[in-house]
Design a protein that fits this description.
Shape: elongated
Largest sheet: none
CATH topology of the largest domain: Serine Threonine Protein Phosphatase 5, Tetratricopeptide repeat
CATH class of the largest domain: Mainly Alpha
Oligomer: single chain
Length: 180
C-alpha cells in the first residue's frame, strides 16, 4: 500500500514538473528570438512595424536603445534610426547615429557606405577641410573585406571622390560657350 502511494506521488510530481516546463515554454514562444523579456520583444516588434514612417521609426528605436541598452537588436535599432534621419533630410543626426552604429559594430558595411556617401555629397569645392573630409569618406568606403554587393557602389563613390579631387587640382571649370 505504501509502495503504491509513493509511486502515485512520484508520478504526480513528475507530471507536475513536466506541465510547469511546458507552460514556461509556451510563455517564451511569444518572444522575438534573442530577446530577454516580453517588453524588449514588444519594443523590437514596434521597431519593425514602424518601417516606412521615419518619425515612428526614430521614436521606436530611441525607446529600444534607452530601455534595453544591452539588447541584441541595438545595432539594428541605431541603423534604422540613422536611415530614418537620412530619409527626413537631417544628415547631421544621421551621421551621429551612424557613428553610434560603428561603436557597436565597426564592420557594419551598410553604415560605412551610408556615411561615406553622405560625406562625399556634403563636401563642397571651397570647404577648408575638404581633403580631410574626402580622406574620411575614402576610409569609410574602403572595400578590403566587404561583400561583393557593396564593392560596386563603393567603386562608384570612389570614382566620384577622384573626380572631386581632379576638379580641385584643375580648378573651377566654366561651362562651354553655347550659341542659342
Amino acid at each position: 500500500m505504501k509502495r503504491q502511494i509513493l509511486t502515485g506521488i512520484l508520478a504526480l510530481a513528475t507530471g507536475m514538473t513536466a506541465l510547469m516546463a511546458q507552460q514556461q515554454q509556451q510563455g517564451k514562444q511569444g518572444l522575438v528570438p534573442n530577446t530577454k523579456s516580453p517588453g524588449e520583444s514588444q519594443a523590437v516588434v514596434a521597431l519593425m512595424q514602424a518601417q516606412g514612417n521615419p518619425d515612428a521609426m526614430i521614436k521606436a528605436a530611441d525607446e529600444l536603445v534607452q530601455k534595453y541598452s544591452d539588447s541584441f537588436y541595438k545595432e539594428t535599432a541605431l541603423l534604422f534610426e540613422a536611415n530614418a534621419y537620412k530619409e527626413k533630410g537631417d544628415t547631421a543626426k544621421a551621421q551621429i547615429y551612424g557613428e553610434e552604429v560603428l561603436k557597436v559594430n565597426p564592420k557594419n558595411y551598410q553604415i560605412t557606405n551610408m556615411l561615406g556617401t553622405m560625406i562625399v555629397q556634403q563636401t563642397r569645392e571651397n570647404d577648408l577641410d575638404k581633403e580631410e573630409k574626402l580622406a574620411k569618406a575614402e576610409k569609410a568606403m574602403n572595400v578590403a573585406n566587404r561583400p561583393d554587393r557593396y564593392r560596386r557602389r563603393s567603386k562608384t563613390l570612389r570614382m566620384s571622390l577622384d573626380g572631386q579631387r581632379a576638379r580641385a587640382r584643375i580648378g573651377p571649370t566654366r561651362p562651354p560657350n553655347r550659341k542659342v
